Automatic annotation (TrEMBL):
<keyword id="KW-0677">Repeat</keyword>
<feature type="compositionally biased region" description="Basic and acidic residues">
    <location>
        <begin position="1077"/>
        <end position="1086"/>
    </location>
</feature>
<feature type="domain" description="EF-hand">
    <location>
        <begin position="852"/>
        <end position="887"/>
    </location>
</feature>
<dbReference type="GO" id="GO:0005509">
    <property type="term" value="F:calcium ion binding"/>
</dbReference>
<protein>
    <recommendedName>
        <fullName>TBC1 domain family member 9</fullName>
    </recommendedName>
</protein>
<dbReference type="InterPro" id="IPR002048">
    <property type="entry name" value="EF_hand_dom"/>
</dbReference>
<keyword id="KW-0343">GTPase activation</keyword>
<dbReference type="InterPro" id="IPR036014">
    <property type="entry name" value="TCB1D9/TCB1D9B_PH-GRAM1"/>
</dbReference>
<dbReference type="InterPro" id="IPR011993">
    <property type="entry name" value="PH-like_dom_sf"/>
</dbReference>
<dbReference type="InterPro" id="IPR011992">
    <property type="entry name" value="EF-hand-dom_pair"/>
</dbReference>
<dbReference type="Pfam" id="PF02893">
    <property type="entry name" value="GRAM"/>
</dbReference>
<dbReference type="InterPro" id="IPR004182">
    <property type="entry name" value="GRAM"/>
</dbReference>
<feature type="region of interest" description="Disordered">
    <location>
        <begin position="1027"/>
        <end position="1111"/>
    </location>
</feature>
<dbReference type="InterPro" id="IPR036017">
    <property type="entry name" value="TCB1D9/TCB1D9B_PH-GRAM2"/>
</dbReference>
<dbReference type="Pfam" id="PF00566">
    <property type="entry name" value="RabGAP-TBC"/>
</dbReference>
<dbReference type="InterPro" id="IPR035969">
    <property type="entry name" value="Rab-GAP_TBC_sf"/>
</dbReference>
<dbReference type="GO" id="GO:0005096">
    <property type="term" value="F:GTPase activator activity"/>
</dbReference>
Length: 1209
């Protein structure tokens, strides 16, 4: 390709000149191609890989040089000799003569540069090539990546790093390529080539480790191998990127959300020297935004725009605090360098004035921001204040165009006005509970009053509402307990739900209206659990509280159908409703499920399982003396799920558990870890003496039952867990506030970022364990139904799943969410569509081969798709493969026979049900039909056009799933058109077989025999046809009273001008496909003495003709309609080929001709070549190994498998 001219200092270094003229030089890189250049070539090739030279991708180049100058300019390079030769010839024909007329060398150089740049600009314009953000150096890396690993354009490279890969004890210096879906490594050292490809979805462990010799190593583990990389220039950056990519892959396994690149990133400068892709910047921006949202509890769609160091004037202590300002689309946030000193959140919806104050030596570059609640924040020491003010102004203009509810005045008054009450019972539920508590408030009124006064003083000093300064004092107040009448409001504030309440007015009411009266699995589970939600609390002992709980849970199930409803959500939501109104409780639940406890409440409680693993790791570090004992008893995994899912609400007395919820909303999940470790630490001696898990659970249960809240003004509510406990000795009372303070003293060193790092490690383990469990359950379910071994089934399942993942990466005709639904039963979690099936059919199924493999795969797929949903699950896939690999001759031929009945059945169903008779509807995925399933349905549908009720479908499903032996006589007859398709299939199957000619002769013999049988059969049914005559109405447009499945009749085929190699579904309305439409099969007697119209060619003439095998079984070249095909004239030393003369338009397929399966089977059994072919054993292990070696990009992969390294040279 032409390139912008670049100066070359040493033209001959490491390059060999192949052509030259006075102005241009064509060179080839040493060490490339045949003859490689000996030792020098090996050294050059090694150097290119180590230094990441562009010569690895473009080993040919053209240089420009004036005769009297020593300077050279690169004007073109190419990956192949042909490509660079085309450019060389163009230069010789169009430029060389022109240059001779110039007198000045500078003019020649200017002309050549301008000409090349003009060619490049014209090419980009004609091919609509747009400038992108990737640098030229990174584009070279992309080209190398795709060339080395045969990756398609859809596979996006993120970055590449120089490193060393350790294969055993041998280090190999090379390049690590990190793409969205794969980790790849390439090395070339002195003729030895090494390649490695690993899917991120297969990674089970990813960790950064160190040894004495290798201080910075990254270990990547899959189920079957371990890979170690070292000698990184920046190991931290590399490892963070690997973590991000592995996380994306785990997310795809979890919920099918494929990666989409952010197109709104700021562009790089045109001459940026950094070798970084736009995709890498995208991932970096996402990681920063995730940390930003987690730090300040902001909505999930908030994107960080930028950050800058600055100081903030804090009026409560009259100092300037050093920290960092963060600016996003809707918020300005600040956090101090020391995390606990101060943090601040300013929603732009609250901002009234942003102005630049006068600079001074004491206060350089100040910026003042005022809010609606009359608070002013003063930032200083801003490096680029003008740019920052402009960005904030732009965001304010966007914010002002939106409708926001204003939070002004006190907390109480503001929340009373927000959105009103969605239902009349909302405020009644809260006030009713408080009224019940009034008589008991007198004993602890003083303590409660002091708490309220402390918070009011705090508001007066640090501000009130969302813009409040959050300091260490705020944390201390939370740890001492939040007053009852402020709890809900402060939960909203600390969780960030206050922002969603303000920005989504009316959203909850709309959800309630849409969800009421609708029923699904989630609503059924909600109804079942409603009366199990805090049944001991008076608020949920009447319909008022139950109705509010029902509305909130149902609304959330409709908001987030991926979660829907999960047990434990009812307990948490019921507590939220006690302290907040319905709409506020709804948004608190959103914050809990989607931000603070991610993936906790999905169908497989992945988030809780991940944190369970984190808790085990923390227990090993902080209570090592107890860890081994707890692991042996298996207690940690049992207790942590209930503790984490319900935030201790299900295991502690209510008045104590709400204190835990207070701390959780302020500090996040670290509070739960700290408290859980404190509980274990407080019971170390009792747990060490336990003999089994039951005894350990009893010890912990008694301890948690004894946790009390002496400062609570609420009446003691009997705890359900304590009511069900045994009458053993009670544990002494434990004050919840002392327990919380103790957890901070002993385990307060646990940091949120450390927890996130541990979560990543555990997430890999948990999700891969779930995937392994799914595989084992699927294999265990179908192992009794097939002759495959367990190991073979596991390998086949891995390939089945890998095909699904590949289609997610690189595109498919169907949605990934349709094919992968973790909520479905194990067998249906992964399914594949036709395009995916074609990929596996070509590498696993023994009948695949030749140019018509896709056509056969299409027929096979339609036969396997028993529920007609355009998808097949693993059981259906194995059922089809099992017949070909382990079935006997009869089963294989029966399968082949059935595959060719589908066209006529499809046509009949379309006609009968008025669903459209065009074959394109099926090809578009609208209709898939299985003959055995729909034959009884056709009988019913013709008699009664109206839709049957669900009982009919249940009956049909029961008949289809019941294991019954199928009788050969029950199979419909094969029409002449279908028979022709069957013969074509046979010929295509044999096209690449070693015994190809022998099989062709056998097929010709069987074909002639079956043709005679069909003609004889016509004589026996001619009388019946005459008697029925006009009484048999047509299928289309006429109401039928019954349908006999045999014989089926095919419509006449329409001849075409050109044959085409397309699947038969493209012409299913005529039963003869295009390549066979010039076959002339007329009514004839087996004793007819007419001459044959087939062209006879000897074996010697056709042995080397590769086109013979792709043609049809029979051909006719006569233009006379009364010419008949004589099957007995076909000799053993001839092959039937296609006639070059077209068939007249009047030719048609005989509608009365038909054969049965018994006739087909008996005819095949007469030919030993066919019997040997269909009885030939299949080495499924070899097929699986071959499938592993094939990349689904059209060519075999060079490595031994996707998970192993290959060495060559």
């Amino acid at each position: 390709m032409w390139v912008n001219p670049e100066e070359v200092l040493l033209a001959s270094a490491l390059w060999m000149t192949e052509r030259a003229n006075p102005y241009f030089v064509l060179q080839k890189r040493k060490g490339h191609g045949a003859g490689g250049g000996g030792l020098a070539g090996l050294l050059v090739g090694t150097l290119d890989v180590v230094l990441d030279s562009s010569a690895r991708v473009a080993p040919y180049r053209i240089l420009y040089q004036t005769p009297d100058s020593l300077a050279y300019w690169t004007i073109a390079h190419g990956s192949s000799r042909r490509e660079v030769t085309e450019h060389w010839e163009w230069l010789e024909h169009h430029l060389l003569q022109t240059l001779s007329i110039f007198d000045n060398e500078n003019d020649i150089t200017t002309f050549v540069k301008g000409k090349i740049q003009g060619i490049i600009a014209e090419y980009n314009k004609n091919h609509d090539i747009k400038e992108d953000d990737d640098t030229d150096k990174f584009k070279e890396s992309i080209a190398k990546f795709r060339k080395l690993f045969s990756m398609p354009d859809e596979e996006k490279l993120v970055n590449c790093y120089s490193c060393t890969y350790w294969k055993g004890r041998v280090p190999r210096q090379g390049w690590l390529y990190l793409s969205i879906n794969h980790l790849c490594f390439y090395s070339y050292l002195l003729g030895k080539e090494a390649k490695l490809v690993v899917r991120w979805a297969d990674v089970t462990q990813l960790e950064k480790c160190a040894t004495l010799l290798l201080p910075d190593m990254v270990r990547v583990c899959t189920r079957c191998s371990e890979h170690v990389f070292s000698v990184f220039l920046n190991v931290s950056e590399t490892f963070k990127l690997m973590e991000q990519l592995a996380n994306i892959a785990m997310r795809q396994l979890l919920d099918n959300k494929t990666f989409e690149q952010d197109r709104s990133l700021p562009r790089l400068k045109k001459k940026s020297p950094k070798k970084v892709s736009a995709l890498k910047r995208d991932l970096d921006a996402r990681a920063k935004s995730e940390r930003y949202r987690a730090l300040f509890r902001l909505p999930k769609d908030e994107k960080l725009d930028g950050h800058t160091d600055c100081t903030l004037w804090t009026p409560f202590n009259k100092t300037h605090i050093l920290g960092r300002m963060f600016v996003s689309t809707n918020y300005i946030c600040f956090t101090s360098k020391e995390e606990t000193v101060c943090s601040l959140i300013i929603p732009l919806r609250e901002v009234t004035i942003v102005e630049k104050a006068d600079s001074s030596n004491v206060l350089p570059s100040p910026l003042s921001i005022s809010t609606k609640n009359r608070m002013t924040f003063l930032f200083a020491n801003l490096k680029d204040r003008d740019f920052l003010v402009q960005r904030i102004s732009d965001f304010l203009q966007q914010t002002s165009s939106k409708i926001h509810l204003e939070f002004t005045g006190s907390l109480n008054s503001s929340y009373d006005e927000v959105g009103g009450t969605p239902t009349s019972c909302t405020a009644v539920l809260v006030t009713a509970v408080l009224q019940d508590c009034v008589p008991v408030l007198t004993t602890d009124t003083a303590k409660e009053f002091l708490k309220e006064q402390a918070w009011k003083n705090h508001f007066a000093e640090f501000g009130q509402g969302v813009c409040m300064y959050r300091t260490e004092k705020t944390k201390d107040l939370v740890l001492h307990g939040i007053p009852e009448n402020m709890r809900g409001e402060l939960w909203l504030l600390f969780s960030g739900a206050i922002n969603e309440v303000a920005t989504h007015p009316g959203y909850y009411q709309d959800l309630v209206e849409k969800s009421m009266g609708k029923y699904n699995l989630a609503t059924e589970e909600i109804e079942r659990d409603l009366h199990r939600s805090l049944p001991e609390h008076p608020a949920f002992q009447n319909e008022m509280g139950i109705a509010a709980l029902r509305r909130v849970l149902t609304a959330y199930a409709f908001r987030n159908p991926n979660i829907g409803y999960c047990q434990a959500m009812n307990i948490v939501t019921s507590v939220l409703l006690l302290y907040a109104k319905e709409e506020e409780a709804f948004w608190l639940l959103v914050a809990l499920c989607e931000r603070m406890l991610p993936d906790y409440y999905n169908t497989r409680v992945v988030g809780a399982l991940v944190d369970q693993g984190v808790f085990e790791e923390l227990a090993r570090v902080h209570v090592p003396q107890l860890y081994d004992c707890m692991q042996d008893l298996g207690v940690i995994s049992t207790i942590s799920l209930s503790w984490f899912l319900t935030l201790f609400l299900s295991v502690m007395p209510f008045e104590s558990a709400v204190v835990v919820v207070d701390c959780f909303f302020y500090e996040g999940i670290k509070v739960i870890f700290q408290l859980a470790l404190s509980v274990l630490n407080a019971n170390v001696h009792q747990l060490l003496s336990c003999k089994d898990d039951g005894e350990a659970m009893t010890v912990l249960g008694r301890y948690l039952d004894s946790v009390t809240n002496k400062d609570s003004p609420l009446p003691p509510i009997p705890h359900l867990h304590s009511l069900l406990a045994d009458d053993g000795e009670r544990h002494p009372e434990v004050d919840i506030l002392k327990l919380v303070h103790g957890s901070y003293e002993k385990f307060g060193s646990i940091r949120a970022d450390v927890i996130e790092q541990m979560r990543f490690k555990q997430r890999l383990k948990v999700i891969q364990t779930i995937e392994d469990t799914t595989k084992r359950n699927v294999v265990r379910t179908i192992v009794t139904e097939t002759a495959f071994s367990i190991d073979e089934l596991e390998e086949l399942y891995s390939l089945f799943k890998a095909e699904h993942l590949t289609s997610c990466y690189w595109g498919s005709t169907s949605s990934p969410t349709d094919r992968h639904d973790p909520s479905l039963p194990y067998l249906d979690q992964y399914r594949m569509d036709l395009e995916q099936f074609k990929g596996l059919f070509g590498v696993l199924f023994p009948w695949a081969g030749g140019v018509h493999s896709d056509s056969l795969a299409l027929r096979f797929f339609r036969l396997l798709d028993q529920n007609a949903d355009a998808l097949i699950n693993f059981r259906e896939f194995i059922a089809g493969l099992g017949v070909l690999c382990h079935g006997d001759l009869t089963e294989k031929l029966k399968l082949l026979y059935k595959m060719h009945l589908l066209n006529i059945l499809f046509h009949l169903v379309c006609e009968t049900l008025s669903l459209g008779a065009t074959a394109g509807t099926w090809q578009a995925g609208v209709l898939f039909f299985n003959p055995l399933f729909f034959v009884p349905f056709l009988m019913t549908a013709v008699k009664r056009v109206q839709t049957p009720d669900y009982r009919t479908y249940l009956r049909l499903w029961n008949q289809e799933t019941r294991s019954t032996s199928e009788n050969m006589k029950d199979l419909p007859k094969l029409s002449q058109g279908q028979f022709i398709e069957l013969c074509k299939t046979l010929y295509n199957m044999f096209s690449e077989d070693p015994n190809e000619q022998e099989l062709y002769h056998a097929t010709a013999t069987v074909t002639s025999l079956l043709l005679e049988m069909g003609e004889v059969g016509k004589l026996f049914c001619s009388t019946c046809s005459k008697e029925d005559g006009d009484e048999r109405p047509p299928l289309h447009g006429t109401k039928q009273q019954g349908l006999q499945p045999e014989p089926f009749h095919a419509s006449a085929g329409q001849p075409r001008d050109e044959p085409r190699d397309e699947p038969p579904d493209a012409a299913e309305t005529s039963t003869v496909s295009a390549p066979m439409e010039d076959i002339k099969l007329e009514d004839s007697s087996p004793k007819d003495n007419g001459t044959s119209s087939a062209m006879l060619i000897s074996d010697d003439e056709t042995k080397d003709d590769t086109s013979v095998s792709s043609y049809s079984v029979l051909s006719a070249g006569s233009h006379e309609l009364d010419d008949k095909l004589q099957c007995e004239d076909i000799m053993e030393d001839t092959v039937l080929v296609r006639s070059s003369e077209p068939l007249p338009h009047s030719a048609s397929v005989d509608k009365d001709w038909a054969i049965t399966f018994e006739q087909f089977l008996a005819s095949v059994l007469t030919e030993h070549a066919l019997v040997r072919y269909f009885e030939k054993p299949v080495d499924i292990a070899a097929c699986i190994a071959n499938a592993k070696n094939v990349r689904k990009v059209g060519e075999a992969h060079v490595s031994v498998s996707d998970y192993e390294i290959s060495l060559s040279g």
